[in-house]
Design brief:
Layout (H helix, E strand, L loop, with lengths): L2 E10 L2 E11 L4 E5 L6 H9 L6 E6 L2 E2 L10 E4 L11 H10 L9 H14 L15 H14 L4 E5 L7 H18 L2 E6 L2 H7 L2 E6 L2 E6 L1 H6 L4 H6 L4 E8 L2 E4 L2 E4 L9 E7 L4 E4 L8 E9 L4 E8 L4 E8 H7 L6 E6 L3 E3 L1 H4 L2
Parallel strand pairs: 3-8, 3-9, 6-7, 7-8
Antiparallel strand pairs: 1-2, 1-4, 4-5, 9-10, 11-12, 11-14, 12-13, 14-20, 15-19, 16-17, 16-19, 17-18
Helix pairs in contact: 2-3, 2-4, 3-4
Length: 357
């Protein structure tokens, strides 16, 4: 089931929740709507589901206009953050509910329902929990029941609104892996809302980054992370260091640092900001390259395979974060309080016009 969203607008009072959103989703894709609170991602999900009316625009399923079709007739599975399970029903009855309430003509037999429910419970690794009630399950187990219930009606589209937001970090990671595996087996077109960058990067085929009711960028996880097209996307998708300076003769000047700009800017003597990820900060004990500048090590966090280092550049009185592999860190024999030399290995430069898009 492909989904086409054309020029969708939605306003709540004076608040513009969605501002001319257009998006094409291919059949079988797993799409993440990623953005901060208030960016419009949940409003868009609810409009696709038919739970919210749009002010302008069109929603198409496989090319058919379903904008005026109510939610019950859209054949959509919806999974909420807080499970929304029926507390008085067993796990079996929760999963079977959508099948049991179908009109008599389209309702499967009791045997068919039982077979489908047991198959789904086996898929979500809860086959031995069929007779338990929701309050007898962990949060992760309840969310798996909610997903099984959504899949029981064989939806054309599966929508998930912050599905793992109420769970702890380890359970979230386990369920992310499980969701990807399940999606690969069912191939149902799926859209999930999240504000968790790691979750989106880990699970989605493509990510739709949203901000202030607009789409900032659409692309694969690699595309949006490695090639962000705006300062917002760069900043939202991970930690960054900022080199606030000026462009002069094809180079960025920031304090004592002067380095080349590869983007082909023709502007000269204008304000610019260079963005660089912590893992793209090169650290050396001596200035082995011309564009390296001195910095002092303020703090070292060496737990795990990645060592995080906080640095202070005295020439501009700014702090930076760098990341090294533990092997590289040990080879450099770095110590807190000593002076080292740094340079950005990869710098993405934005000028003032980029911030007003």
């Amino acid at each position: 089931m492909s989904i086409t969203i054309e020029n969708v607008k939605k306003q709540f009072g004076s608040f513009q929740a969605l501002d001319n959103i257009s998006l094409n989703i291919e059949t079988g894709e797993l799409i993440a709507l990623l953005g901060p609170s208030g960016s419009g991602k949940t409003s868009l999900l609810r409009i696709i589901a038919g739970l919210e009316n749009l002010d302008e625009g069109v929603i198409l399923f496989d090319g058919e206009n379903i904008t005026e079709i109510n939610a019950k007739e859209r054949n959509i599975g919806f999974v909420f953050q807080h499970y929304a399970l029926f507390k008085h029903m067993t796990v079996f009855d929760n999963v079977a509910y959508g099948l049991k309430v179908r009109p008599r003509k389209s309702r499967p037999s009791k045997k068919e329902i039982a077979n489908k429910v047991h198959t789904l419970l086996s898929l979500v690794k809860l086959e031995h929990f069929a007779n338990r009630f929701p309050n007898q399950l962990s949060g992760g187990q309840r969310q798996r029941v909610a997903l099984a219930r959504a899949l029981a009606v064989e939806p054309k589209v599966l929508l998930l609104d912050e599905p793992f937001g109420a769970l702890d970090a380890k359970v979230r990671k386990d369920l992310r892996r499980w969701l990807r595996k399940m999606h690969n087996e069912f191939h149902v077109t799926s859209i999930f809302v999240t504000h968790d960058q790691e979750e989106a990067l880990d699970v989605a085929d493509r990510i739709v980054v949203m901000n202030k009711g607009r789409i900032e960028q659409v692309g694969t996880p690699e595309d949006v992370y490695d090639h962000p097209n705006s300062p917002f996307v760069y900043d939202f998708l991970g930690n960054v260091n900022l080199f606030k300076g000026r462009l002069k003769n094809g180079q960025l000047v920031h304090g004592n640092y002067t380095g080349p700009v590869d983007e082909g800017f023709t502007q000269n003597d204008v304000e610019a900001i260079g963005y660089v990820r912590p893992h793209d900060i090169q650290i050396e004990r001596t200035a082995i390259l011309e564009d390296m500048v001195p910095a002092k090590i303020i703090f070292i966090h060496a737990i795990g395979p990645i060592v995080q280092i906080e640095l202070h550049r005295q020439d501009v009185d700014e702090y930076l974060e760098a990341e090294l592999s533990k092997e590289h860190f040990r080879s450099l024999k770095l110590q807190r309080g000593e002076q080292i030399y740094i340079r950005p290995k990869q710098l993405k430069v934005f000028i003032p016009e980029d911030f007003s898009i």
